[in-house]
């Protein structure tokens, strides 16, 4: 069982700052997912943890040990890679045991016993005598996981381990990884660029961009209370709509609509963000964030209340379980997730309302969140969080 601390961790490659001063504690037994776009520094962070890269500055601690400069083989962590990294000429069993045998720290009986246990846990008994060329991608990744498990490491470090698998297998393996983690309770750091994967796997999710941490929270908190535009737009699919508005008297105003912001200005903004002012006559620019699933069509929800507005349908996009309606009002374009069989044509006028409990405002200059509506005030998890400095 292991706690991992990253303190002001930095990695430069020539003139590229891949990791730009990260502070993060990974709790004992936690499943932590690092997610972000390509090039944001997530693999480098993982490789620093594994000792495959040397930090330019900062410290990595594992429990009480400073491992910043410790050789990879002395860190007792097990890496699982996207390309499985199996030896092609060895059987599944040899691939699993090779590291243990060469470490010389285990007897043959111990090795056999651990392979049996891992084979049972991962359901790979019938793969042990096959070579990787005779295995599917999913089977190879199970062998790679077996190799990680038998070492009984202090932590698993996984770098996009499912991205070479087809969509169906990926979903199945996600469930297996969750089960495996519940069984082994080993501290796990998992890197992916796929926000859906991050949200389904992570107990906590780190969103990274440009070598920095944008937010570290549970999937639900990231979704409901993004601390900035980057997180708001990265988490959730289809992405959150962002519309330039003017805020006045607790209302978000745009050419063609006025959306009341419940609680705005009554000191009810999210803890940790500035409440937006409501003094009469105080106008300021903001970016209104509304998820496509938090806009509604009047024809589907007759009880929308008064705060509706009219928009024009641009195009519709069937997504299977919903219909994505691209529409516009004035110069604002946005998306609405409607029922799958809604009949709409380009050019149709629609009546739209938004869920008053799921509105967000962001600072147009900095992108920082300024306000989340009512749901924010109901979230005990969020309210207990210390305000940001
Ligand atoms: N060995 C290296 N030499 C030079 N630059 C590097 C090296 N490794 C990574 N980088 C650069 O550091 C930055 C972060 O790379 P990293 O691989 O950590 O990103 P990532 O978030 O894992 O991206 P991806 O999802 O594409 O793998 C990128 O700009 C990358 O080009």
UniProtKB/TrEMBL annotation:
Part of the ABC transporter complex XacGHIJK involved in the uptake of xylose and arabinose. Responsible for energy coupling to the transport system. It catalyses: L-arabinose(out) + ATP + H2O = L-arabinose(in) + ADP + phosphate + H(+); D-xylose(out) + ATP + H2O = D-xylose(in) + ADP + phosphate + H(+). Residues 262-275 have a biased composition (Low complexity). NCBIfam families: PRK11650.1. Gene3D superfamilies: 2.40.50.100, Nucleic acid-binding proteins (2.40.50.140), P-loop containing nucleotide triphosphate hydrolases (3.40.50.300). Pfam families: ABC_tran, TOBE_2. Residues 4-235 form the ABC transporter domain. The lineage of its organism: Archaea, Methanobacteriati, Methanobacteriota, Stenosarchaea group, Halobacteria. The complex is composed of two ATP-binding proteins (XacJ and XacK), two transmembrane proteins (XacH and XacI) and a solute-binding protein (XacG). It is a peripheral membrane protein. It is an enzyme of class 7 (translocase). Residues 378-389 have a biased composition (Basic and acidic residues). This is ABC-type D-xylose/L-arabinose transporter. Its EC number is 7.5.2.13. GO terms for cellular component: ATP-binding cassette (ABC) transporter complex, substrate-binding subunit-containing. Its main location: membrane. One of its GO terms (molecular function) is ATP binding. Belongs to the ABC transporter superfamily. Carbohydrate uptake transporter-1 (CUT1) (TC 3.A.1.1) family. It comes from Natrinema longum. InterPro entries: AAA+_ATPase, ABC_transporter-like_ATP-bd, ABC_transporter-like_CS, ABC_transpr_MalK-like, ABC_transpr_MalK/UgpC-like, Mo/tungstate-bd_C_term_dom, NA-bd_OB-fold, P-loop_NTPase. It is found in: Cell membrane. GO terms for biological process: carbohydrate transport. Residues 261-281, 363-389 are annotated as: Disordered. Keywords: ATP-binding, Cell membrane, Membrane, Nucleotide-binding, Translocase, Transport.
